[in-house]
Amino acid sequence: MSHVIPYIAAIQEAIREEMERDERVLYFGQNMATSPEDPFLKQFGPDRVRVTPISETAEIGMATGAAVAGYRPVVELYMAEFLLVATDQVVNEGTRFHFMSKGQVSVPMVMVAGYGFTAGWAGQHTGSIYGMFMGVPGLKVALPSTPADAKGLMTTAIRDDNPVLFFQNYLLLLDEGEVPDGEHSVPFGVADVKRAGSDLTLVGTGYAVRTALKAAETLARRGVSVEVIDPRTIAPLDVDTILSSVARTRHLVLVDQATRHSSVAAVIAAEVAELGFSSLEAPISMVTALDSSIAYSKPVEEFVLPDEHKVIRAVEASLGLAPAST
After folding, report:
1. Which residues are known catalytic residues?
2. 27 lies in some domain
């Protein structure tokens, strides 16, 4: 059985269910528990749900310390760029303890951060910086695109014994979708084929999965069969599912809201170029944001970011199709 809820509610449902299941799970952030009416505070009390100082360094430091002490904290950071002021703790502290202790110390914490705040959020809050973290040893990175995956990946993240970065796109938060009732977990490192197809493989990342699906739907009306793959996690990254698809379709287009030279798309392109080159009948195409900050101006923002039309043009070029008439 399933129920239909928004993406943000699916995340909250997973956190609540895990807090009910395991009393070691904590939940805190700068805007948490600011009122006695906060539903998490009312249900779980101030020992497990807390407001933090306006300091990401303090938040992540608290989470790391609590995790080392045996708790499972979930810390709400709101914007991905806020991670940057605590980069040492994210990249060089909590992620290293398990390795440096020869497995004797675990750091089970989840850092939740939003990304890609377009629609006029301007330069400092619109970055899709998840690619910066996918190569950090000891750090897992989840990037759900649907409510069901948001719940399932959050459940898995909380149960993981070492740090997880959980990226959510604020433009997806109110999107509704079916979510399984009760306990639901999605394994890390297992991509999902969101739409089957035979002519071309289209891999979307996070919010860009929506863009990919829109393009695939438009192309289907022209008789073009596009397979859409969502990696769901970028660390670990399921390269095998992508390679298997490319071996059948012989064509690959990648769409990613991140800037071209800091994108997951670039990493996937390199993997396929090395491991699946013989399958390709056309060059790999990457549809990403330009290597630019995003302006406040909506027309300039749209110029910088990938969209459905840019993806369709890339698919047409890869398949040698004439552009659709407008």
Report:
1. 125
2. yes
Residues in the chain: 326
Q: Lowest-confidence range among 19-23, 89-93, 187-191, 275-279?
A: 89-93
Cα of first residue to Cα of last residue in the chain, in angstroms, is 43
Co-location of 120 and 176 in the same domain: yes
Clarify whether residues 99 and 240 are in a common domain: no
Choose between 170 and 22: higher pLDDT. 22
Cα–Cα distance for residue pair 118/287, rounded to 1 Å: 17
Q: What's the whole-number average pLDDT of the chain?
A: 93
Strand order in the sheet with 233-235: 49-51, 25-29, 72-79, 110-115, 164-169, 140-142, 233-235
Closest among 59, 71, 9, 68 to 32, alpha carbons compared: 59
pLDDT score of 15: 97
**Pairwise CA distance, residues 307 & 291, whole Å:** 16
Whether the CB-CB separation of 9 and 147 falls below 8 Å is answered with yes
Q: Given a cut of 90, is residue 230 above it in pLDDT? A: yes
SS3 content of the chain, % helix, strand, coil (to 5): 40, 20, 40
Residue 63, SS3 per DSSP: helix
pLDDT of residue 118: 65
| Amino acid, res. 107 | V
pLDDT in tens, 51-104: 998 888 899 999 999 999 999 999 998 888 888 888 888 888 888 888 889 999
Beta strands 176-180 and 2-6 are antiparallel
Residues 230 and 119 in one domain: no
Please identify which residue in the block is written with the tokens 């910066």. Answer: 132
How many Å apart are CA 118 and CA 288, to the nearest integer?
Answer: 14
Determine the structural domain holding residue 299 and report its residue range. 192-319
Dist. CA 285–CA 188, nearest whole Å: 26
| DSSP β-bridge partners for residue 235 | 141
Residues 240 and 204 reside in one and the same domain: yes
How far CA 308 is from CA of 63, 144, 298, in Å, comes to 39, 19, 16
| Cis omega (within 30 of 0) for bond into 163 | no
Tell me the C-alpha distance between 207 and 119, whole Å: 14
